[in-house]
Amino acid sequence: MKIATWNVNSIRQxxxxxxxxxTQCQPDILFLQEIKCETHAFPALTFHxxxxxxxxxxxxxxxxxxxxxxxxxxxxxxxxxGLPADDTQARYLEIEAADMTLIGIYLPNGNSGGSAGxxxxxxxxxxxxxxxxxxxxxxxxxxxxxxxxxxxxDDDFAPGALSATDALVRPETRAKxxxxxxxxxxxAIRAAHPHGHIYTxxxxxxxxxxxxxxxRIDHTLLSSALAERLVSATPDKAERDQPQPxxxxxxxxxxx
Length: 256
Prior knowledge:
6-stranded mixed beta sheet; 6 helices
């Protein structure tokens, strides 16, 4: 089984990219982030035509998440449990498929909005940890995947790519990520590739792609039942070299 995640940075601009990639790579499930369109505007019919059912949680111009699946699934939550009821940011989609709970997220960046923006990031991560804790307590196979906007360690960004005060690497951010790991979740890429620089994002500015000034901020976290089935977890770097690419690449996790 292949579970993939991809921040496409606008589905309007990358609809053809996603269609081509699905046809070539044929993951069973693909979670998307930053679709940047309202729910009704998501091009579900395009993906139905190549065998994928679709569900989206969108908002105008910003954020937005979606899932594409070749197998039937049930939507459980379209917003992260525990957040205030008036929080309208489209960042979370939880489904049940193939006897698993699968969650796709677009975690707040935390660099905009000053101290309030960073506090929102940490509060969101705390709610995510509470949801993960509840699902793990129910002993259901669980995967949380998406754009976490976290570089967990210094190995997860190129030297000079970020300042020490960036919200992606601040100690508070990394502590919240470790909290997820300590619940009993496994970072799939680091389980498959324990050491070295592995990136999933290269900025459009300053020749970051050409200079390999990347970040690893797209992750898949697996419960123990799924971690035991881990075969591979790999970013598809070739996608960053396509014409008009997203600044992120797909990350594919294969389970036995």
